[in-house]
# Entry
Amino acid sequence: MTAAVPDQPQGGHSLMPLPANGVEWPPPAWADQYATMRVDDAWYSGDPDRLAAVYARHARRGDGRRRLWSRRPEAPLRPETRMHIPLAADIASTSAALLFSEPPTFTVDDRAAQQRLDHFAEAGGIANNLIEAAEVTAALGGVFLRVTWDRELVDRPLLTVVHADCALPEFRYGILTAVTFWHELPSDSATVWRHLERHERGAILHGLYQGSPDRLGTRVPLTEHPGVADLAGSLGEQGDTIETGLPDALTAAYVPNIGPNRRHRGSDLGRSDYAAPLYDLFDALDTTWSSWMRDIRLARARLIVPDGYVRDNGPGRGASFDEDREIWTPLAIPPTEQGSGITLSQFAIRVDEHVRTAEAIVRQAVESASYSAQTFGRGDAPAVTATEVNARERRSMMTRDVKGRYWAPALADMLHVMLRLDRLLGYSTVSGEQRPNVQFGDSVSADPQSTAQTLALLAQAEAASTDTKVRILHPDWDEQQVRAEVDRIHEESGTAVPDPITGAPAIPAEPDANPLESENQ
# Structure
């Protein structure tokens, strides 16, 4: 539930209306983009039924390419023998881990605002939300960050995530100007209930529609469905709008995975990690593993026995072979005649061929997605130090840096909106004037041995101060922690603590004269 902002802006804001009744949904203009996202979603989900449904639809539309998942089962009652390997999901999760395995840091100059920002990050679980968002971004080509609030739950704004296949964004010169989120609500009938949430500068519009699977239907009051009824009390005088108090800012931002969008050139939407030719490689990998499993099924030992070894079960009941029977009646067949005994049939399993084929497909797929094969456990012996990891996974690190440049502006914008709303909603009195700075963490943590060697070399060369070495060893410490550790080191070593401003060694004060001697004098 989203609560209304106490202070409303004064006029000057023109809102676009929500969609009219009865329009086709999703809008036909988005049919091609949504169709691409459905394919991406099917591979990302790893659900064989979803893959079969998507590619069956493609086959009906005249896609002449022969794919494993577009084939119909040979017999309806026959068990499914096609096997899916979740490489697509692995690529998405690896992309997210490269970006946010180490939580990013958010900083501002104002101390009170920094404390509030730290509270958002820790209590709100922003780091976990970002990992989940980054995984979906890699799969669908983009994701939306949305700021909302609920006074009944927490005393702070909330940073939430909306998937790209449930959004209709509007861009101008590559800048998001508005976006309409939509999702289907639970229903106990054939009626499809949809909630639309449109974000514009300074306002959020809400609408509830009662329609069908392909039509938006009729707009009805929010109180008609319990899933959104609580929102009705937050709407302003216009009946469907919540004024945010931020006439110059959106409460939503779009994060593209990477650009450009090769399939939809000219689009402001990002490109999925699965963009062509990865669909074909995913299908080839599943075909290879399905063939391997077929070899295993066919390689099970089978016995071919003469008719005389088979017991007749009676008219219409067939015959059977008792493999536990020990005594058999001899047959009047020359011993040299073929088929006189039991024959064992067992096919070979082509393990090496399948392994090498699968490895080659996986390597090509991850490299086509702009990652190093070593990131996925392929390649040379594992690296020992962080420096070796970065060297061997240079392509993955470059892709991570590129994606980080797409993430930073949108994330900073939403954190700025959170600070400003935090004050407007009365949760705090901090200043939200400064836009936070976003610093991404290291995807590969330095190993202790490498760090110790670096510090030892710096100490031997006398090329770094104690303060610098402490910061290298503890990059996550603040100024107070660093200073306290430096003081302890100097105290234990018996050296003078340098002055924090001039850097000159502090001169210890002369001990006070003995008061008894002064009196005697």
Summary: The chain has 13 helices and 15 strands. Residues 1-13, 507-511, 515-521 have pLDDT under 50 and may be disordered. The first helix runs from residue 31 to 45. Residues 55 and 70 are 5 Å apart (CA to CA).
